[in-house]
Amino acid sequence: MSTNNHADFAHHFESREHEHETSKLGVWLFLATEILMFGGLFVAFFLFRNLYPEAWKEGSALLSVGMGALNTVVLITSSFTMALAVHYTQRGMNDVAFKHLLITIACAAGFMVVKYFEYTHKIHAGTLPGGSYFFAGQSENLPLFFGVYFIMTGLHGLHILVGIGLITWLAIRNRRGDFSASNFTAVEGVGLYWHIVDIIWIFLFPLLYLNF
User: What is the CATH number of the domain that holds 113?
Assistant: First the structure.
């Protein structure tokens, strides 16, 4: 079988469309594993909340609803700008797409800054589980709540950092001229990842901060 060295798709694909559809399927399979991982944590969250409702009520009241709400707005905004970046890349408007990628990175960085201040306050208050825990709460199971809180929000924060790296990579490739109206697979794939990360936070905020 002959290969075209000048084709704008990898040699093991039949066409640009074949590469795009295959790559998108791969992204969705990866996202399915992410959903399963967080799904297990949500199951643990609900089990513990049903077992120790007093600890969950007390712990939720100790979290900063203002900071959580601010981060929710920031991530919703970043999801919108990421969608616009995909939209403009698909139409070959790379300069506009680049600006939206930068805004998305800035929003993600802002999320982590807010989370840093929130974590710092909680650690200084003595709510970090393990040997560093010294907070005198009313419920004896309060450390369990904060254990779940730090695991779930920490893992989510790690995904935010990965997203910052991926979107930065897209911005670099954008400036290099790698994307066009016929070549936007990477942008769309990272966009799907970013939307999943944002959706997970939309569930975390009311469950942890508002005790829904």
Answer: 1.20.120.80
Q: In this structure, is residue 11 part of a structural domain?
A: no
User: Is 7 inside a domain boundary?
Assistant: no
Confidence of residue 130 (pLDDT cuts 50, 70, 90): confident
Q: Which amino acid is at 35?
A: I
Q: What tokens were used for 34? A: 């992410």
Q: Which residue has the tokens 């998108």?
A: 24
The tens digit of pLDDT for each residue in 146-189 reads 999 999 999 999 999 999 999 999 999 999 999 988 888 899 99
Residue 148: enclosing H or E segment and its boundaries? helix 142-176
The reported pTM is: 0.88
Is position 5 within any domain? no
Q: Is the dihedral of CA 94, 95, 98, 99 positive or negative?
A: negative
Least confident of 9-13, 97-101, 187-191, 192-196: 9-13
Count how many domains the chain has.
1
DSSP 9: S
